[in-house]
Amino acid sequence: MNIPTALVNELKLYLKHRTDNGDLEAKTLLTQLEQFTSSPTAAEEQALYSQPPAGLDVGC
Q1: Burial group, residue 10, by CB count within 10 angstroms (0-12, 13-18, 19+)
Q2: What residue segments make up the domains of the chain, in order of their start?
């Protein structure tokens, strides 16, 4: 999923503010968002295990 960095940062700030006010659901969402943004994307992960297209062999 491609989410603009500015939107993610605004969402983190909002959730941090809500967390500071004692909102437990916001704390959970903030933790999940931080884990999501710090982990590799699904596309990056899939690229690690994909086979090269036909004709692009490495020739080893």
Answers
A1: exposed
A2: 1-36
Q: Which two tokens stand for residue 53?
A: 């297209």
List the structure tokens of 11.
Answer: 């969402």
Write b or e for each residue in 45-58: b if 16 or more Cβ atoms lie within 10 A of its Cβ, otherwise e.
eeeeeeeeeeeeee
Write down the pTM of the prediction. Answer: 0.62
Q: What is the pLDDT along the chain (60 residues), one digit of tens a residue?
A: 577 889 999 999 999 999 999 999 999 999 999 988 887 666 666 667 777 667 666 666
